[in-house]
Amino acid sequence: MSRFAVIKGKFHRVFFDEKLKSLKQFLRNGNYSSLIILTDSNTKRHCLPKLVDYCNLKTYHSLCLPAGEEFKTLDSAENLWEQLLPVSDRKSVLINLGGGMITDIGGFTASVFKRGIDFIHVPTTLLSMIDASVGGKTGVDFANYKNQLGTFCQPKAVFISTEFLNSLPHDELVSGKAEMAKHAVLNGLETWNEFVLNFNKTDSVKDQIETAIRFKLKITDKDLFDQGKRIQLNFGHTIGHALESFCLLTKKPIPHGFAVAAGMICELFISCKYFKLSEDFFNEQIIFLKNNFPKIIFNETEIEEILSFVASDKKNIGTKIKPVLLKRLGKPHMDKVVDLVTVKESLNYYRLL
Length: 353
Ligand SMILES: NC(=O)c1ccc[n+]([C@@H]2O[C@H](COP(=O)([O-])OP(=O)(O)OC[C@H]3O[C@@H](n4cnc5c(N)ncnc54)[C@H](O)[C@@H]3O)[C@@H](O)[C@H]2O)c1
Description:
Elements: E1 4-8, E2 13-17, H1 21-30, E3 35-40, H2 41-46, H3 48-54, E4 61-65, H4 74-84, E5 93-98, H5 100-112, E6 118-123, H6 126-132, E7 137-142, E8 145-152, E9 157-160, H7 170-187, H8 189-198, H9 205-220, H10 237-249, H11 256-274, H12 283-292, H13 303-311, E10 325-328, E11 331-333, H14 340-352
Parallel strand pairs: 2-9, 3-4, 3-5, 5-6
Antiparallel strand pairs: 1-2, 7-8, 10-11
Helix pairs in contact: 4-5, 5-6, 6-7, 6-9, 7-8, 7-9, 7-11, 10-11, 10-13, 11-12, 11-14, 13-14
Bound molecules: nicotinamide-adenine-dinucleotide.
């Protein structure tokens, strides 16, 4: 991929631009009355100086949240609205500079503030570059459950500079690769093989990001509100979110992608059961996920607690649990109702793997 590239989504463009010249131009053209930059404590230190320098920003307001999923809450959003009041109007723009936690809460905050102000994402983690910053889902966690409050609202644009990845902790890079693995499994055998081949290659990371974004946009552009095709992107997330919520509750937060990798293993196990596939049908994928992503540790007695999160997943219809299953690579199935006994079996399978 060239140093500068643009992907034109149906609702917004994604600019690949290492020095963020296109962002500078975008802000100039936007003629905004004020510019507010939202960071967390880490991206304020590692990423804000670069953004300010590259875009030659002289006047802006800076808002900062503590880093971590535990701060993706309504309380944090309220705190942001209070700080936005004196410095913004409906012609202001909010720049969300951070990982998925910041793009989710920043998008949510902007989407309801004064019935909606413009916002832009400048993702700084691999996960937010390939996933959280595109597609227009915003939100915060509520009552210990993931993403219970939120909106569908598109950023005006997304600007990606992989230079931000230089300061990203290794675990967070690995976390992003789990969402890439999800895209690969959903896209089919060819993408999966390419993903495995490139997994440890750093020189092709921009191409890998572009492939993942194109795949996500292809789906979200056709199903903005999660009514059909888009549901497949929740693969690994019914059980993944339950594990993530469980870890948050027990004060041992884990990167989002680690939970998704574990969730994918469980949901591949369930797929074999429900589609009567041989036990080793997804062996290659399961072993790859097991070997390349850290294991989430829980004991048998804790499974009941994890199951209570599964039972309350926001993707459930009434009491019906409907994880995304796979008939084969590239063939997701979104309409199977799965019982808690099988989910429990899958968690035990994962635990003992
Ligand atoms: N809206 C969507 O479609 C969507 C999709 C996938 C995930 N998500 C959400 O995204 C969130 C996870 O995102 P994430 O994995 O990016 O987590 P994150 O935003 O919490 O970032 C992970 C850690 O990396 C730090 N960090 C970020 N950029 C950095 C940089 N360049 N240098 C140094 N440190 C940096 C952060 O401060 C944080 O400590 C979850 O809340 C998940 O629900 C949303």
